Amino acid sequence: MTTMILSGKRQVVLPAELCRQVSLAPGARVRVELAPNGDGILVRSDSAGERKPAAVLFDRIARRGKPLAVEDLQGLAVAKRQGKP
User: Fold this and answer.
1) CA-to-CA distance for 24 and 20, rounded, in angstroms?
2) Is residue 76, in this structure, part of any structural domain at all?
3) Where is the SpoVT-AbrB domain (predicted)?
4) Residues spanned by the domain of 60
């Protein structure tokens, strides 16, 4: 759990890692509501069904190994279409 400070304008900054986990990018719309038990505030994405920015999607992919060049990726795609492993 992260503790944040409420500014004079009643603003808080959401931690970047938390935003990545729930696919919130800068400029995303959120809904803020009172928790059902009245004990806190819920912040939820208001972009149901919207496309997510590529940067958010790529951050969720585990990166392993050396990056591939575009030409290598194209070669893999051709090989797959031809039925080669």
Assistant:
1) 6
2) yes
3) 1-48
4) 16-81
> Residues 46, 31: contact at Cβ < 8 Å?
yes
pLDDT in tens, the chain (85 residues): 788 899 999 999 999 888 888 888 888 888 899 999 999 998 888 865 555 555 555 555 566 777 778 787 788 888 888 886 6
Residue at 2 is within a domain: no
Exposed, middle or buried: residue 81 (CB in 10 Å: 0-12, 13-18, 19+)?
Answer: exposed
Residue 4 lies in a domain: no
SS3 7: coil
Give me the half-sphere count of Cα atoms (radius 13 Å) on the Cβ side of residue 78: 6
Exposed e or buried b per residue across 15-41, where buried means at least 16 C-beta atoms within 10 angstroms of its C-beta: eeeebeeebbeeebeeeeeeeeeeeee
CB 19 within 8 A of CB 25: yes
